Amino acid sequence: MQQVLASVGAAGLEPTLFTRVTLNPRIEEVAAGAVVYAEQGCAIIAVGGGSAIDCAKCIGLLAANQGRIRDFVGVDNVGAPMPPTICIPTTAGTSADVLQFAVITDREINRKLPIISKALVPNNSLIDPATITTMDAFLTACTGMDALARRGSVRIARALVANGYACAGSHATDQFQSPEIDREAEQSRVPP
């Protein structure tokens, strides 16, 4: 985080740090972040895992659109895209930094609210493997398995058009896959 703040400061900008985000970000956290953005905003840089990135995306959603988070739940209910948003993921599994989804917790009704819109796709994602070294070994293993599972789902659903990030992730993880797995998958394939 300190490197990000230093880089922003070196660019002549004065960063505002918003850290009031919990696991499974809540509506009230997004609303608080939107107030901070309205007072200070220029661009959003989200550093963290899926929760921090989903919260940042929804803060951007509220900054660009009138309404409350509940107004945007569902598919394609977002009008304007977020302000410029850069994501720096520190976990390996959620892909929140490149996808059009965000999930926010509504404690009043005890549910997670999905928001799905191309307007939620961040402008940039700065992916550096060194950022995941901030996690403990167990969390690293969990997010690695999440990434591997997502890679597998792309391979299984060949009929779907995978975006460049999923393809790049598939190629990037090939070096860790056993050749035997590929042979077994090839032998089990049903001819067209």
Structural class: alpha/beta
What kind of assembly state do the chains in view correspond to?
single chain
Q: In one word, what is the shape?
A: globular
Distance between the termini: 50 Å
CATH topology name of the largest domain:
Rossmann fold
Q: Uncertain segments of ≥5 residues (pLDDT<50)?
A: 158-182
Can you tell me the number of structural domains?
2
SSE sequence, one letter per element: HHEHEEEEEHHH
- If classified by CATH, what would the architecture of the largest domain be? 3-Layer(aba) Sandwich
Count of runs of 4 or more consecutive helical residues:
6
Strand order of the largest sheet: 1-3-6
Question: What proportion of the residues form beta strands (DSSP E)?
Answer: 5-15%
Number of β-strand runs: 6
What Rg, in angstroms, do the CA atoms define?
Answer: 18 Å
Main sheet characteristics: 3 strands, parallel
Structure description:
The chain has helices spanning 2-10, 27-40, 50-64, 137-156, 164-173, 179-188; strands spanning 44-48, 74-75, 85-89, 101-106, 111-116, 124-125. It is an alpha/beta fold. The strands form 2 sheets. It has a 3-stranded parallel sheet, with helices on one face. The N and C termini lie far apart (50 Å). The model is unreliable at 158-182 (pLDDT under 50).
Please render the helix and strand layout as text.
Elements: H1 2-10, H2 27-40, E1 44-48, H3 50-64, E2 74-75, E3 85-89, E4 101-106, E5 111-116, E6 124-125, H4 137-156, H5 164-173, H6 179-188
Parallel strand pairs: 1-3, 2-5, 3-6
Antiparallel strand pairs: 4-5
What are the salient characteristics of this protein?
192 residues, alpha/beta, Rossmann fold, 2 domains, 3-stranded parallel β-sheet, 3-stranded mixed β-sheet
